[in-house]
Automatic annotation (TrEMBL):
Transmembrane segments: 30-50
Keywords recorded for this protein, A-Z: Membrane, Transmembrane, Transmembrane helix
Protein name as it appears in the record: Phosphatidate cytidylyltransferase
Gene source species: Sphingobacterium griseoflavum
Domain of life of the source: Bacteria
Length: 58
């Protein structure tokens, strides 16, 4: 049940925030925070794509 409530809050936050509001919030927190966040997100996406494509198999 707790997992469902986390998912519900997350889904509501995503649908209520536009991309402009998210970017504005990131840069209000500071340019370096925004850069670090973007680098982390890109790294996670690349890691997921590598796992799906079978990058760890020999």
């Amino acid at each position: 049940m707790k997992r469902f409530s986390y998912f519900t809050v997350f889904a509501m936050a995503i649908t209520m925030l536009t991309s402009c509001e998210v970017i504005g919030g990131i840069f209000k927190a500071g340019v370096w925070s925004g850069i670090i966040l973007v680098v982390l997100v890109v790294a996670v996406v690349v890691w997921i794509i590598a796992k799906i494509a079978g990058g760890g198999k020999r």
